[in-house]
Design goal:
This protein is α/β, with parallel strands linked by helices and 193 residues long. The chain has a single domain, classed as P-loop containing nucleotide triphosphate hydrolases (Rossmann fold, 3-Layer(aba) Sandwich). The protein is 30% helix and 18% strand. The strands form two sheets. Strands 4-5-6-1-7-8 form a six-stranded mixed β-sheet, with helices on both faces. A two-stranded antiparallel ribbon has the order 2-3. The radius of gyration is 16 Å and the shape is globular.
């Protein structure tokens, strides 16, 4: 499978088809059992700084605030300033000044903070696993618009979702995975929502 720069891909498939596993392998968090993955002409592990990854589970520190969570992850990228973190939090519809611990966030707020963590460093490749889970319809539409704007700005997006209808007008191509294999790919037309 080859992905073109600046395109928006929606990865579909039944539960257990391997969608989350594929994203983890592209992100360099799991090793493929066969074959290889190259991102920006580099092994995926060497391209991590240029990727943003949002797992299906938010994977946040409950005892920290939203900003404290992002500051922790920003240090891994060598980002000392709060400015890109605050911008990312605002872009996903949260307040960077919210002092509440993440453990007290709603599921939708946790999802949005997880997305902020994936985008604060302006990644060239964005890997998202069910970013609309537990998010109300209005917030989901806002997230979809944000992703469309990121794609328009040149980011490549590979997104797993069962809510294809949110993206039908902005995604460039859908990819269908079955039993760990890419079995179909094509334009978004005719995709059932």
């Amino acid at each position: 499978m080859e992905l073109q720069p600046g395109k928006f891909y929606v990865l579909r498939g039944e539960n257990g088809a391997g969608k989350s596993t594929l994203l983890r392998m592209i992100a360099g968090l799991s090793e493929p059992t066969e074959g290889s993955i190259t991102i920006f002409s580099l092994p995926s592990r060497d391209a991590r700084a240029r990727m943003g990854y949002m797992a299906h589970a938010p994977l946040l520190y409950d005892e920290l605030s939203g900003m404290e969570n992002l500051r922790f992850f920003a240090r891994l990228y060598g980002i000392p300033s709060d400015a890109p973190l605050q911008d990312a939090i605002r872009r996903v519809g949260l307040d960077p000044a919210l002092p509440r611990r993440v453990g007290q966030y709603s599921q939708g707020m946790r999802q949005r903070l997880s997305l902020a963590r994936a985008i604060f460093h302006s990644p060239e490749l964005l890997l998202l696993d069910e970013p609309f889970s537990n998010v109300d319809p209005e917030s989901a539409a806002e997230i979809a618009r944000l992703l469309g704007a990121m794609r328009s700005a040149g980011a490549t997006i590979l997104l797993v979702t069962h809510q294809v209808g949110l993206l039908a007008s902005m995604a460039d191509e859908f990819l269908l995975l079955s039993a760990g294999r890419l079995v179909d790919r094509g334009a978004m037309r005719g995709v059932h929502t």
